[in-house]
Specification:
The complex is a heterodimer. Chain A is mostly helical. In chain A, α2 packs across α5, α3 packs across α4 and α3 crosses α5. Chain A is elongated and about 75 Å long. Chain B is of the alpha/beta class. Chain B has a single domain, classed as FAD/NAD(P)-binding domain (3-Layer(bba) Sandwich). Chain B is built from 11 helices and 16 strands. Classes of the chains: A mainly alpha, B alpha/beta. Chains A and B meet through α5, α6 and α7 of A and α5 and α8 of B.
Chain lengths: 156, 534
């Protein structure tokens, strides 16, 4: 692995985790975890390795975000009060326009195939195969109005 | 292999190649099929993984340009609003198809006589009807007899269950008094000929791990190989060659290592789909056929037809359990199938309902439609769409137009250096009017079914599944490439049996008709062996 594709620093990982929790926070009823707490930073880091274009966008965004947080007198983004994080995140769009669109895409598609998330949504947290799903046969009487029709096909 | 001359060489192991191989095996001829792809391992299909919903962005994508498996060839489809979809493997595109398996209608073979558009086919519904029956048994078709949109037909297996989603949409059609019927589906709804029954996995479009969907690697090919047909995988055919007598004498191909090889044959049959077949013929140009093999008519590659697809999606209040069941096989409607001049277009379309989507796809819908914010309100917004969508596609009949065509790209090549196909295609005014009509009627029926909101996309771009018309059949060599049983007018031991030969496109999925035609051609070959080339 080249130096360019080295792992996130602990500080970058901490910021990324906080960002992920801001993008997809835990649900109010506690059934769905936040994306950061779920550990999605690992998956995002893996995507950064697979897709070289993603890496500068994410790192640039994290850097801009931490800089904004410090400019307001605090530590990094992860140290900012929860109520202020959304505002900071929105403000990064001007300085790092590629940051949020790419990160949101990968955060969503990764978040929504995690077993705890699927279970929180009320669907089985497993692959479709091999168990599948049982679907009952339908009421045949639904077709009665169609059966009563004359043939639709055109004579030739 | 290079020293052997086989009796029959089939190029392509998809829907058509499998059917004709199985039938011709009855003759005890030496039959070999060459396929550029490989056997698939259903245990590796995405539905065995939690991230199955992402597979369409990777090695199970519909477009060969995005998928980029080594066995794929690129297609320059930048000149078309509809992108090419295919798959290269034993089973061909049936590996990824939905298994929606309707027949054509009697009127589909007579569009010129009935509506003054397109051309009449040199055969009719009655000619193919017995082969539809054979194909239904071989592919294992599920459905329900009695559909008033069709002449009487038998269906060997019980229908795919509608589920809550299908029942909801059916009620909408009933409220409007419109036709609907459980879809004919190439899906084993009970154990059938060694295939396990469907267990409603959902993601049929990335391969069926259960083996219930009728892809030809689990239907025709096991039966054909038991009868002695051989399949040579990872063999990419570059050109069909002619002998001094003007008859096809074999092919030049590249093996898996990229080594150029030769295979001789007494009969060559092309089953490479409506893009692959004209590509191969154009790449087989020679001194006798400088514009492409078997192309004295000039029609090889022309009259490309897709099915323009409109997509209409409803968002409902309640969960629909739409992730349970075959995604593309539920119910269909042919209320608007036959021509009604009052609608402002000729011919018509089929509504094919689609089931719901997985959580990943729901999040993508949320992103692209701007209804899934990040942060506060995210989960509430997601709950509004996940498992609450149902919809349909309108499969619209495409009319043949010579300017819609497949040619060879002057620069693009596949991994073996063979020129790639280039697509030039525009939607006709008739198609535009039809898709607009379908969006409006789709909105009505979804609202009648209880949808609180309806999204409509008049042209689905990733929908080039059905590839037809580029080597059309007919009785006149000046206006067609093959005769009514697939034999090239110009080269009498060269046959074409895929969707290339279609004269018109109908408004239903073509695989059943492609295979019925392949069985018809096989029957004609078997019946005329003594004077096959006269």
């Amino acid at each position: 692995m080249s130096e360019d594709f080295a792992a996130l620093t602990p500080e970058q990982r901490r910021t990324l985790t906080a960002v992920l929790d801001e993008l997809v926070p835990p649900s109010a009823d506690g059934r769905l975890p936040g994306a950061g707490a779920l550990g999605l930073a690992d998956a995002i880091e893996e995507k950064m390795r697979e897709q070289p274009d993603l890496r500068p966008a994410v790192l640039g965004g994290l850097e801009a975000l931490d800089a904004l947080a410090r400019r307001d007198g605090g530590g990094g983004f992860a140290d900012v009060a929860a109520a202020e994080r959304a505002g900071l995140l929105s403000r990064t769009s001007a300085e790092a326009p590629a940051f949020l669109p790419g990160l949101i895409f990968h955060a969503y598609v990764t978040y929504y195939h995690q077993a705890p998330v699927l279970e929180g949504l009320g669907v089985p947290g497993r692959p479709p195969h091999p168990e599948g799903y049982a679907v009952a046969a339908s009421d045949d009487a639904l077709l009665d109005p169609v059966r009563a029709r004359e043939p639709l096909y055109r004579p030739v | 292999m290079s020293e052997e001359t086989v009796d029959v060489l089939i190029v392509g192991a998809g829907a058509a190649g499998a059917a004709i191989a199985w039938s011709l095996a009855d003759t005890r001829m030496n039959v070999l099929c060459m396929e550029q792809g490989d056997w698939m391992d259903p245990a590796q299909y995405p539905s065995t993984r939690l991230d199955w919903d992402l597979a369409r962005f990777g090695p199970f994508g519909l477009s060969p340009n995005g998928r980029r498996r080594p066995e794929d060839y690129p297609v320059n489809d930048s000149g078309s609003p509809i992108q090419i979809s295919n798959f290269n493997a034993v089973g061909g595109s049936t590996i990824l198809y939905a298994g929606h398996f309707p027949r054509f209608h009697p009127s589909d073979f007579r569009t010129k006589s009935l509506d003054g558009v397109g051309c009449d086919w040199p055969l009719d519904y009655e000619t193919l009807a017995p082969w539809y029956d054979v194909n239904a048994r071989m592919m294992g078709v599920a459905g329900l007899a009695g559909d008033p949109a069709y002449p009487p037909k038998d269906v060997p297996l019980p229908p795919v269950p509608l589920g809550k989603l299908g029942e909801t949409l059916a009620a909408g059609f009933n409220r409007l008094g419109w036709h609907w019927w459980p879809s004919d589906s190439a899906i084993a709804t009970r154990e059938y000929e060694g295939r396990a029954p469907c267990i409603n996995l959902g993601p049929c479009l990335t391969g069926c791990a259960q083996g219930a969907k009728g892809s030809t690697d689990v239907t025709y090919w096991p039966a054909a190989t038991r009868k002695g047909v051989r399949i040579a995988t990872r063999c990419r055919v570059r050109e069909v060659t002619l002998g001094p007598d003007g008859m096809a004498d074999g092919v030049v191909y590249y093996d898996a290592e990229g080594t150029e090889r030769r295979q001789r044959a007494e009969i060559v049959i092309l089953a490479c789909n409506g893009v692959g077949t004209p590509r191969l013929l154009l790449n087989s140009a020679n001194a006798s056929f400088p514009d492409g093999l078997a192309n004295s008519s000039g029609l090889v590659g022309k009259n490309l037809m897709f099915h323009p697809y409109a997509m209409i999606t409803g968002i409902f209040d309640d969960p629909l359990l739409g992730y349970q069941g075959p995604t593309g096989c539920c119910i269909m409607s042919q209320e608007f199938y036959e021509t009604d001049p009052a609608r402002g277009f000729v011919r018509g379309y089929t509504f094919e309902t689609t089931r719901g989507m997985g959580a990943v796809s729901a999040s993508l819908l949320g992103m692209t439609s701007g209804r899934l914010p990040w942060g506060q309100g995210h989960h509430e917004a997601f709950a509004e769409i996940f498992d609450r969508t149902a919809g349909m596609v309108a499969i619209c009949e495409d009319l043949p137009e010579e300017h819609n065509r497949v040619t060879l790209d002057p620069e693009l090549r596949d991994g073996d250096g063979i020129p790639a196909p280039k697509i030039d295609y525009t939607l006709s005014e008739n198609s535009h009017r039809m898709t607009e009509h379908a969006c409006a009627r789709g909105r009505e029926v979804l609202e009648a079914a209880g949808a609180k909101e309806v999204l409509a996309d008049p042209i689905l771009s990733v929908a080039g599944w059905h590839l037809m018309g580029t080597a059309r059949m007919g009785t006149d060599p000046a206006t067609s490439v093959v005769n009514e049983w697939g034999r090239c007018h110009d080269v009498r031991n060269l046959f074409i049996i895929d969707g290339s030969v279609f004269v018109t496109s109908a408004a239903v999925n073509p695989t059943n008709t492609i295979q019925a035609f392949a069985l018809h051609v096989a029957d004609r070959i078997k019946s005329n062996l003594e004077n096959l080339f006269d």
